[in-house]
Amino acid sequence: MIFSRRRTRIFLKYQLEQGHAARTNTFSPDIRDEQEKLLWADFVIFQFPLRWYSVPAILKGWFDRVFASGFVYGQGIGRYDKGGLKGRKAMVSTTTGSPREAFTPYGMDGDIHEKILYPIHHGMLYFAGFEPVEPFITWTPARDEEARIRYLDEYKKQLQNFSAIPSILYHPTSHYDEHHQLKTEYR
Amino acid sequence: MIFSRRRTRIFLKYQLEQGHAARTNTFSPDIRDEQEKLLWADFVIFQFPLRWYSVPAILKGWFDRVFASGFVYGQGIGRYDKGGLKGRKAMVSTTTGSPREAFTPYGMDGDIHEKILYPIHHGMLYFAGFEPVEPFITWTPARDEEARIRYLDEYKKQLQNFSAIPSILYHPTSHYDEHHQLKTEYR
């Protein structure tokens, strides 16, 4: 169940129903719980295995349902630096099946930052208002047990000083013109 | 249910179980059915609304489960031009919530080809062996009814001559060296 009350039963337009649920406080309890956790948090870690160069389906479903219109955007809420979760940071921590070299600009799988994680960092997290920080990437932990243990240690140290992790710098919406184009002075 | 018989019950490693299911022909019937449809097809269209700058969760789940190790890669099957579905073409047909200008190189949402669809075209379709062709993108159909009808007509014409749609040209695996780097002569 997604909504306890539908706005219209003639057709389903997901964002319309989400907006209605937000206005009438009728999100299903599991979604409301997740939204409340996000509002409470000031730093959120998304831990997942990189699967088919994106998040696993179950986490995508979490974004599709929890990042609702009327909660993180829409209904008078903005997007990106004006998104509903603004003032909070988020970090991706992911594990890969291919080695680091495959994810470089000339690597076979494509640049991890500019190509693979962009739709997650920019399209999901930043769109919703989060300030994404540099990800923690564990390369091929299933193939090297010693490296896996070193990564755990490194990750622990990283988290002990999590507020020092640099943010990924994206342009605020004010740097774009009315045609959604980055103004020339910021290029 | 994903597998009718597990290889190991001590821990779950998804690819290991997929490989086992492939070797012993024990994928669950719904997955086997989807795999057989792919082997039968020579041109596959993936029609979906762009949601959070990727495929909706239910389609991601389809990729996660159907594009199994031992079917499209692994167990002696290669990747990209040597993937299990080689010899077949695939086309993305998607609908957006933001206008075309927002998805240009200086657009607010990021370049649709280089950033947003790359993990799908290259990471999912090409990885599995498909030759992806140029996508059919319907910009903001929910906001302009006349445009929506024009798109339907344009799409119909496109499909009547689908074999003429240009492929997206990615490098074959032979263009990469042993460190997964594109060889200098192809840069």
Notes on the structure:
- The structure is a homodimer of 187-residue chains.
- By secondary structure, chain A is of the alpha/beta class.
- Chain A has one domain: 3-Layer(aba) Sandwich (Rossmann fold).
- Chain A contains six helices and three strands.
- Chain A has helices at 14-24, 29-40, 57-66, 112-116, 118-126, 145-160; strands at residues 43-49, 89-95, 131-138.
- In chain A, helix 3 links the parallel strand 1 and strand 2 (89-95).
- Chain A is globular.
- In chain A, 31% of the residues are buried.
- Chain A binds chain B through residues 13, 15, 51-58, 60-61, 63-64, 67, 80, 97-99, 101-102, 104, 106-110, 114-116, 118-119, 122-124, 127, 142, 173, 176, 179-182, 187, and chain B through 13, 15, 51-58, 60-61, 63-64, 67, 80, 97-99, 101-102, 104, 106-110, 114-116, 118-119, 122-124, 127, 142, 173, 176, 179-182, 187.
Multimeric state of these chains? homodimer
Strand arrangement, major sheet of chain A: 1-2-3
User: How many DSSP E strands of chain A?
Assistant: 3
Task: Tell me the CATH architecture of chain A.
Answer: 3-Layer(aba) Sandwich
- Our estimate of the beta-strand percent of chain A is 5-15%
**Biggest interface between chains:** A-B, 44 and 44 residues
Query: What's the main sheet of chain A like?
Result: 3 strands, parallel
Structural class of chain A: alpha/beta
pLDDT < 50 runs, ≥5 residues of chain A: none
Count of DSSP-assigned helices of chain A = 6
